[in-house]
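Summary of Year 1 activities. Much of the first year was spent building the evaluation harness for sequence design. The harness presents a backbone, in tokenized form, and records the residue chosen at every position. We chose the following record to illustrate the format because it has been used consistently in internal testing since the harness was completed.
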């Protein structure tokens, strides 16, 4: 597994919804890849920070649109500056 694949699975990895085999392969990659571990921790801390903010309930449709947007952004190649 490579870094790009790990980042596309990050939401499922953190929510523990990956199948055991895929999770094991991710764990193997994370064991050897400091960059992905840092990305994972930054993502996790960002989610925790956002959850600590006061919020209003958003609709399931809005949540799903945001998730699809983020998943699409994660899977797109980075643009050169």
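For this record, the design step produced the sequence shown next.
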């Amino acid at each position: 597994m490579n870094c790009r694949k790990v980042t596309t699975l990050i939401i499922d990895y953190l929510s523990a919804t990956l199948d055991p085999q895929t999770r094991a392969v991710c764990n193997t990659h994370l064991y050897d890849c400091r960059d992905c571990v840092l990305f994972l921790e930054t993502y996790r801390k960002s989610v925790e920070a956002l959850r600590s903010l006061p919020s209003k309930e958003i609709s399931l449709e809005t949540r799903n649109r945001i998730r699809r947007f983020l998943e699409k952004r994660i899977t797109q190649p980075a643009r050169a500056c």
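The chain has one domain: 3-75. Quantitative recovery figures across the full test set are reported in Table 2.
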